[in-house]
Amino acid sequence: MERHENYAYERFAFNSFREGVEALSARNLPVRLMVSFERPLTYPAWIINCSVSAVGTPPNRFTINVPELLPHILTLFAHLVAPEVISRTSKNELRKVALHASIQQFCDAASEATKAYKEAGLASAIRTGSQKSNLTFWAFEAIADHVDSLTYLIVNHEIGHIYIEQLTKGTGQKSDAHAFEYFRLRYVTAVTLSRIADNPKVVAKKNAPCPDAPNTC
User: Fold this and answer.
1) How many domains does the chain have?
2) Domain around 24
3) pTM assigned to the model
4) Ordered strands of the 61-65 beta sheet
5) How confident is the chain (217 residues) per 10-residue block, as mean pLDDT?
């Protein structure tokens, strides 16, 4: 792949360590963190979902497992949809039309990238998605803050799982796991989007603490 085509993956890993190390230190947890884009997962490589695993008793090394295509999918979203989400330059009806169009463009680009991934692998998927969305090297600087905010949302969510020791699928009661996912996704998504809208030039590295996991949102 070309140098700039690795950007999304380098940025995702950098932000994961930047956020994750501080969050682990805040709870006096072992600061041993890995970010894996290669580990076989039980869900597709293009899905917007991650998981966190640990080794040791008690856990002393953590891994954020990232679907292989996810960083590229997030970059497509940051490039096509995020600018319309925070836009304040047009009237409501025009914004709705523009937002709808941007979401459709994102879906088209992500679908083409996923198809290419299935047929020819990661490099082909990234190239196809970039071409479909007109994502060039020069676009990355403009969307860096959006990419960062989306990464922080995901990483903080996974660190929250570490805080409550929900590290593997099936840990604890199934209903508890579902309730935690629902609460955190709704809360962190709302806070992150509101921060981007309030000041799109500033990355919200630390949002308001969550009741069950301070310093993670």
Assistant:
1) 1
2) 1-217
3) 0.73
4) 33-36, 61-65, 51-55
5) 78 91 87 84 82 83 91 93 75 77 92 94 93 87 88 87 68 39 50 50 40 37
